[in-house]
Design a protein that fits this description.
Elements (H helix, E strand, L loop, with lengths): L2 H21 L21 E4 L12 E8 L15 E6 L3 E6 L4 E11 L8 E7 L2 E8 L6 E9 L3 E7 L6 E11 L4 H23 L1
Antiparallel strand pairs: 1-2, 2-3, 2-4, 3-10, 4-9, 5-8, 5-10, 6-7, 6-9
Protein name: PEP-CTERM sorting domain-containing protein
Organism: Rugamonas aquatica
Pfam family, one: PEP-CTERM
Length: 208
């Protein structure tokens, strides 16, 4: 394999490596709800566009309660993702417009169940671009659980978590992330094999 081929292999591998690093970035703004426009004391809560209304939360719109991370109101557990979390209660919802290129993405988040209300489960739907990707049911007192799914989009779209249960159950949501799909290891192998084949062809040409 000549120097040009080796340089092409190195450049291609470097490009893929950099792409994988860039794609790991979270494309959701304020995914752990740590940037409200108001002060919320420990163990307290307020509503965005609802009763006990407070200010805004950077990146997000909708009607939902924001809570501090403590064993305070509604038995919300301490979240591993910062000082704040949101509740999906009844038919409340949160959403964010995402700036995405066309492609495949991974959505991940964590949820937990209300701990001081011994009623039924809270059900909520996860949607992207108006398409329901998943319907989740969170049991009373459920511990924090990691969730993830994959979706494909043609471009910019809206991410939404919307309650489906018309009673006083609550699903807590935190640590929301959207990342572009990273190439599988097989992609790298195929690239190296293809460039290796180019090297073989180049050597044969030199031999002739």
């Amino acid at each position: 394999m000549n120097k040009k081929i080796l340089a092409a292999v190195a450049a291609a591998m470097a490009a893929l490596s950099l792409a994988g690093t860039a794609q790991a970035a979270n494309l959701v703004v304020n995914g752990s709800f740590e940037d409200p426009s108001f002060t919320l004391s420990a163990g307290s809560y307020c509503y965005l566009n609802g009763p006990y209304e407070c200010g805004a939360v950077t990146g997000w719109t909708g009607a939902f309660p924001l809570m501090s991370s403590s064993s305070g109101p509604w038995g919300n557990p301490n979240t591993p993702a910062g000082d704040f979390l949101v509740g999906i209660q009844g038919t409340s919802h949160i959403e964010q417009s995402l700036t995405l290129a066309a492609g495949t993405y991974t959505l991940s988040w964590i949820d937990a169940g209300r701990g001081n209300y011994g009623g039924p489960t809270e059900t909520y739907q996860v949607s992207v671009g108006g398409n329901v990707l998943s319907t989740e049911a969170v049991n009373y007192g459920a511990a924090w659980t990691a969730k993830s799914l994959t979706f494909t989009t043609a471009g910019n779209t809206v991410l939404s978590f919307a309650g489906q249960t018309n009673y006083d159950a609550t699903a807590f949501i935190d640590n929301v992330s959207v990342t572009a799909a990273v190439p599988e290891p097989g992609t790298y192998a195929m690239l190296v094999a293809g460039l290796g084949l180019l090297g073989v062809v180049a050597r044969r040409k030199r031999a002739r």
